[in-house]
């Protein structure tokens, strides 16, 4: 740093004034050094489990590596992605099942996140009201969030069981359906079964984020609205909704990123069926079950790119709402 | 009673009906799993809301399987180790990010945010290679290592926001007394960070306890599996005769600790979730 001061020439008081910032810089330098030292374990860990594996996945997507022998991989260019051979297109991008899984993932994400936001806001509004036993209701609402995804998938799989499930039983007793529905096996209903489980599990997350935002809202404009006799619904759309939009945006992006990489629910509920297969399920199936690391890595890379693009687009559009790290 | 009062009463009834609906919706699947797990296998396929007869056969069955006990043991080891590592690395990193201004700080924050958005599948093949070359395939230690990818960014992020809120004066006094950053962190900040660490530790524990994709991919034998994989594969046998009783019993066993944690620490969990998201 630029503190090259000749001490001998300076008068005594001046020297003490000048040396003070010098001592500051020394402390500062020591602190910056310590900061990097403190960051090192985390940076090393993240490089080992995230950075390097990501680079390797990119690389492997251009090879013909197989799971049993990762070392013996040859570079084959873009063959895993797309190649024209003997009058036909091959590769992930030419695979209708891949495109089906892209569509499934997008459909699943949009529908389930929309439902979660709508129901999450309703639950949050109710939890925001003052009533006896609110703490108990809030704890109960949190339960689905804490239950492992695998377990919730199994619980719902049992409730949705076509012959002995309670849901078909209830629906038939009430008279909504005449014959039991094969929720998890039928191509028409299995996606809805998956969405149902996901919505059930993640409403609490959205509700709690929105609740936190609701509790920070100023009370006075609600009092003013009440005095003026404005309909509560109108107050909600004109006052509450705009004020909680930033929190909603955050909830939506968190949920959307989660939904785009969905794996557990679908894998347990419907296994590898193409009518619900998500991009993650597709990539893992290629990688592990078909042992085709190159092809699977290409699918993983595409999934990564899609999520990265979605994130960038979202951050760009909602730039004002999301600030990085505070100060 | 005039119409106005009537409307008010109707509104209250509607409100409580809505609350009841939410309660039932949130709790019923878990309740039904408990009911199913207590039924004797002869009653399993009779749909009822309250078991007409019950016993603990399903629990006896799963606890007599060594593979399930192993899975519980593995899950406990993995989850606690992950929490320990995430808190240790997270605490030092959050001190650096929350209290020191240095060049590259916002880049590091951006990288952390980026990693937390990673789809797990995107690193699956690369991570598989790393784990295999470290000789950790089919070993819970491999899971501990790989789980840092989602616990660490989150822990650092939340702890950093908490760390920033601590008063300046504390640190200035420590610096004046000539304390090194390490001493400042462990002697001054650590005692104040316990609440935040409990929150993030709890969330990391739940995340590690529930993880499925890595656990499924990086382990091979029954003895090395964690609970979620064990439960998912209980059903793997044949598509027609799933052991629903034991599955539900196992589900209840792994969920009860989480539900208890949530009910005890709900305030902390809420504050941790919102600190991670609202301020992110």
Secondary structure: elements and pairs:
The complex is a heterodimer of chains A (327) and B (280).
Chain A: H1 12-60, E1 83-85, E2 88-90, H2 96-128, H3 134-146, H4 149-159, H5 166-174, H6 190-214, H7 220-227, H8 232-260, H9 264-270, H10 279-289, H11 293-317
Antiparallel strand pairs in A: 1-2
Chain B: H1 3-38, H2 57-63, H3 66-99, H4 105-116, H5 124-133, H6 140-165, H7 168-176, H8 181-210, H9 213-218, H10 227-234, H11 244-278
Helix pairs in contact in B: 1-11, 2-11, 3-6, 3-8, 4-6, 6-8, 7-8, 8-11
Can you describe this structure?
The complex is a heterodimer of chains A (327) and B (280). Chain A folds into two domains: 1-60, no CATH class; 90-317, MetI-like (MetI-like fold, Orthogonal Bundle), CATH 1.10.3720. Chain A has helices at residues 12-60, 96-128, 134-146, 149-159, 166-174, 190-214, 220-227, 232-260, 264-270, 279-289, 293-317, and strands at residues 83-85, 88-90. Chain A contains eleven helices and two strands, in the order H-E-E-H-H-H-H-H-H-H-H-H-H. A two-stranded antiparallel ribbon of chain A has the order 1-2. Chain A is 67% helix and 2% strand. Chain A has 327 residues and is mainly α. Chain B is mainly α and 280 residues long. Chain B folds into two domains: 3-43; 66-278, MetI-like fold. Chain B is 76% helix and 0% strand. Chain B has eleven helices and no strands. Chain B has helices at 3-38, 57-63, 66-99, 105-116, 124-133, 140-165, 168-176, 181-210, 213-218, 227-234, 244-278. In chain B, helix 2 packs across helix 11 and helix 4 packs across helix 6 (140-165). The radius of gyration of chain B is 24 Å and the shape is flat. The model of chain B has no long low-confidence stretch (mean pLDDT 86). At the A-B interface, helix 1, helix 3, helix 4, helix 6 and helix 8 of A face helix 1, helix 3, helix 4, helix 5 and helix 6 of B.
């Amino acid at each position: 740093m630029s503190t090259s001061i000749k001490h001998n020439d300076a008068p005594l008081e001046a020297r003490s004034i000048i040396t003070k910032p010098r001592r500051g810089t020394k402390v500062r330098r020591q602190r910056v050094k310590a900061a990097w030292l403190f960051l090192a374990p985390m940076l090393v860990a993240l490089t080992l489990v995230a950075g390097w594996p990501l680079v390797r996945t990119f690389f492997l997507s251009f090879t013909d590596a197989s799971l049993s022998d990762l070392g013996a991989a040859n570079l084959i260019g873009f063959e895993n992605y797309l190649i024209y051979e003997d009058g036909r297109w091959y590769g992930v991008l030419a695979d209708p099942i891949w495109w089906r899984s892209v569509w499934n993932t997008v459909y699943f994400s949009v529908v389930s996140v929309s439902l979660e936001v709508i129901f999450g806001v309703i639950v949050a509004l109710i939890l925001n009201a003052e009533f006896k036993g609110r703490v108990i209701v809030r704890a109960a609402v949190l339960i689905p969030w804490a239950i492992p995804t695998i377990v919730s998938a199994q619980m719902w799989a049992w409730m949705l069981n076509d012959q002995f499930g309670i849901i078909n039983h209830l629906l038939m007793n009430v008279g909504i359906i005449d014959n039991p529905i094969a929720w998890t096996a039928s191509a028409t209903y299995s996606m809805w079964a998956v969405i149902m489980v996901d919505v059930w599990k993640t409403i609490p997350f959205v509700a709690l984020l929105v609740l936190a935002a609701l509790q920070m809202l100023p009370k006075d404009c609600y009092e003013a609205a009440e005095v003026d006799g404005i309909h509560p619904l109108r107050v909600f759309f004109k006052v509450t909704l705009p004020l909680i939009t930033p929190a909603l945006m955050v909830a939506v992006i968190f949920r959307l990123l989660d939904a785009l990489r969905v794996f557990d629910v679908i894998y347990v509920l419907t296994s590898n069926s193409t009518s619900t297969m998500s991009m993650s399920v597709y990539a893992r199936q290629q990688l592990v079950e078909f042992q085709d690391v190159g092809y699977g890595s290409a699918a993983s890379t595409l999934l990564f790119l899609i999520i990265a693009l979605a994130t960038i687009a979202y951050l760009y559009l909602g730039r004002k709402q999301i600030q990085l790290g505070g100060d | 009673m005039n119409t106005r009062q009537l409307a008010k009463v109707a509104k209250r009834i509607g409100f409580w009906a809505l609350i009841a609906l939410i309660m039932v919706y949130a709790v019923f699947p878990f309740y039904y799993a408990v009911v199913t797990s207590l039924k004797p296998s002869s009653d399993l396929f009779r749909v009822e809301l309250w078991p007409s007869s019950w016993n603990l056969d399903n629990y006896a069955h799963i606890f007599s399987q060594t593979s399930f006990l192993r899975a519980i043991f593995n899950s406990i080891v993995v989850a606690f180790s992950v929490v320990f590592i995430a808190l240790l690395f997270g605490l030092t990193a959050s001190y650096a990010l929350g209290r020191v201004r240095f060049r590259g700080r916002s880049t590091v924050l951006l990288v952390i945010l980026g990693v937390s958005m990673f789809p797990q599948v995107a690193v699956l093949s690369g991570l598989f290679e790393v784990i295999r070359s470290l000789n950790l395939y089919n070993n819970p230690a491999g899971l501990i290592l790989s789980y840092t990818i989602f616990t660490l960014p989150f822990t650092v992020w939340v702890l950093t926001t908490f760390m920033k809120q601590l008063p300046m004066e504390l640190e200035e006094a420590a610096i004046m007394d000539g304390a090194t950053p390490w001493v400042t962190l462990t002697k001054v900040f650590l005692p104040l960070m316990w609440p935040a660490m409990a929150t993030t530790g709890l969330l990391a524990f739940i995340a590690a306890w529930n993880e499925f994709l890595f656990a499924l991919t990086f382990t091979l034998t029954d003895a090395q599996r964690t609970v979620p994989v064990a439960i998912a594969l209980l059903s793997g046998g044949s598509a027609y005769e799933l052991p629903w009783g034991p599955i539900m019993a196992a589900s209840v066993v792994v969920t009860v600790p989480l539900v208890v944690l949530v009910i005890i620490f709900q305030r902390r969990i809420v504050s941790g979730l919102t600190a991670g998201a609202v301020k992110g």
